[in-house]
Structure formats: structure tokens, C-alpha cells
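Forwarding the complex inputs:
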Amino acid sequence: MLDLYFTVRSVTPGQKGRDALNAAGLRCRLLRAPRAAAPGGCAYALALARRDGPRAAAVLDRAGVRVEGQWLRSPEGSFERVGP
Amino acid sequence: MIYLDNAATTLRKPPEVAKAVLEALKRCANPGRGGHAAAVRAGELLWRTRSLAARYFGLEPEQVCFTANATEGLNIALRSLVRPGDRVVLSGLEHNAVTRTLTGLGAELVPVRAPLFDGAAWLEGFDRALGPGTKAAVCLQLSNVFGAVLPVKEIGALCAARGIPFVVDASQSAGLLPVRPGEWGAAFTAMPGHKGLLGPQGTGLLLCRAQPAPLRFGGTGSRSLDQAMPAELPERLEAGTPNVPGVAGLGAGLAWLSRQDPKRLAARERSLLKTAAGGLSALGAELFTGPDQAGVLSFRLPGADPETAAEAYAARGVALRAGLHCAPLAHETAGTLPEGTLRLSVSPLTTREEIEAFLRISRGIVPRFGRKKSTCYLLSNRV
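Prediction (whole assembly, two chains):
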């Protein structure tokens, strides 16, 4: 389940991050960030499996993609900020 | 039509360019603004083109910003670096896109003059001019009027050693010569998408290795509650809905170029210019040629005003450009004011048959104006 959301400011770092994660063999989906995970308004999110979080964070850091926040989506659809 | 005005725009493009434009018009919505399929498709198209350009120019994708043309890119670059009264060193071959922008900014323009095709002399000129208090330097890689190639890598090294931001105008060179902003230490490199990169008009790229100031303010599809423009590239420079069909065509042009052997393309264009120069010389034309020349050949026919001669060519189906080519400074440097020159410019899609047909037509035109001995301006042009 892709329930860990890494938010980025806009679509460009999102696309760069997606390509870096895919190249590292990590499955992810780039999507518009839900409002609850975008306090600044209009952002994008890379949705990942929770277990891939630490490795994904390292891959994105190496690619120079700045993550604005890490959010966990509950089965009910609410979001809890879990980092950074 | 025998189209030899490729320095203005490459009229002929690879067929996939028009196809990509049409496809984008039909299938792409506003990129970065929505999560539906048509918006995502548009966003992916921009990303693919940005990534392709980044690989082509040796940069990261976010350093590639889409502009409407090279002029917009140069405006962004110069407005980011220059304040009223600032001393700016520039080559004496710059286009009005540079000189008018600097004049509008109230800068002190310090043009470097040198013989057209003497790279060492240009370098020496910049070395002398890049003195204390210089706030920026601007140099084109390839003159849009004379086809002279300037040593931007070496000029960039001079700037780097003196801590002077360097702006390169790659309007005529992109797609024809290697454009490597990282190796040049260039803060900004501007180019159109519709010339050597074979994209449609209304497209351009600004390659940023420094933080620019935005020229346009507005929506970016990100951080909408924040009223300041984003600090991050490319969004910082790309407010408003982008030219998605144009970028699609530019991407197709870049993809076509990426599949070619650049050395072969350059050698082919040099060979076409050499053929044209040889034929014109035999007709007594005044030629502006030199060892380090690419893409462009300026000439004048004996006894003919360039505009009148261009009209005569146009009446016979030959597209050339005449006059000052929006670069009066270059003509002042070369001593070709006030009438300017006729300019012939080739592209990867120019054929040898077109050059031969142009020369046949020239043989019919020249006697109308009278003949005299050919003049070649090599290293010792009138500077």
C-alpha cells in the first residue's frame, strides 16, 4: 500500500524525485498532494510504501530533491505528519 | 522556396516537430495545475523536454527554464544581475536583445572590439576590459550577423577568475555548436527554441547556473498561499500557463538533434557555407569569412544596397535577410554601417541543391548591379 507521502513544492521536483526513485527500484506514484498534506497550498506528493521510507529519503536527498514533509495516510484517509 | 534565412528561424523542421505540436494541442491541458490525465500528460511532456534539454546541455533538469524566446531569457539574465549605472562588458557583436536591455537598465555598456574572426583578439579585448567594478559580462557564442565564433569558454574563465557573472547568448549556436554552460562558468545561457534547436517560434530556453530574478509573477501551481514567487527553479521563472504545444515541438526538435552526430552536422554546414562563399566570391561579392565561422555568411553584392539585393532574391524565390539584423553594434564593429549586409544562413535541413540553385540565381542577379573585384574580410576586417 502506498500510504507514505513525501510532499514536494511543485511538479518538477516531484517528477525528478519519481524518476530517481524508479531508477533506484522503488515503486512510487506522483500525485497532487491532498490539502491536508499541503499546508502552503498546492503541492505534489510522492506516494510510497511505508517500508521504503528511509531508503526513499536517502535517494531523494542524493538527487537533490527537497522534501517538504512526510505524511502517513490512515486507512480512513486522514494524514499525520511524521517528518522531517 | 530556397530558404537560407535559418538564422532568423529554421522554417523547415523535422516532420515530427509539427506532429508533436498538433498532438499536444489535442491532448494536453495545463501542466502542474491538476491531477487529471490531460494535465498530467502536459506535465510529463514538459518534464521530458526539460530532461532532454538538460542532458543535451550538461545540466540538471531544474536548471532548464522555458521562455518565449532568447530575448526573454536575456532580459531575465540581465535584469537579475545589472542595476542602473553598472559597468557591463560585452562583445561588440551583441544583438539588440542585449544592448537595448542593458540600455533600458541604465547600465554603462563597455563593448569589446576585435577583428571578426580572430578569437585570440577577442579574448585579449575581454581581458583588458574586464576591469575592477565590472558587474557582468555578456558574450554571444556565434555572431548572428557574421557567423564568427567567439571563445566563450576562455572568456568565461577570465570572468570566473575575477568573480564577474557571465551571460552567454547562444541564440545562433545552440544546435550547431557545443553549448556547455558548466564548462564556461556561465551564470545564464539564453537561446531560442526555433532556430538551431528546430522547435516552433515562441519557444526558448534559459539555462540557469545562478539564482535569477523573475520577470513574470503569477501562478505556478505550487504553494498558492504564499504571495512571494517560489525560490526554486524552474517555477520561479515560469509563472502562468506555458506554451505546451511549443515545448512539445521543441522537445521533438531536440530529440531529432540528439540522434544526429553533431560533428557531422557542423562539418556539413561548414561545407555548404564554403560552397556558397566560393560561388559568391567568383561573382565579385564582398564576403565576410574567416577560419572560425559557422552557420552564417554575410556578404554584399557589388553596387547593390543589401535590401534591394534581398528583394531581387526574394522575387526569385530565395529567402535571405538584409540590413542590420537587429545588431547595429555588430555592424559598427565590422564597419558595415549604415547599409548592413546580406546574410545567408543554413540549417541541418539545408540541401546542397539549394546552395547550388542560390548560386545560379546569384549569377543572374549580380550583373544587374554591376561587378567589381571580390573582397574578402578575413582576420583584418575593418576594425
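Residues 11-23 of chain A form the longest helix (13 residues).
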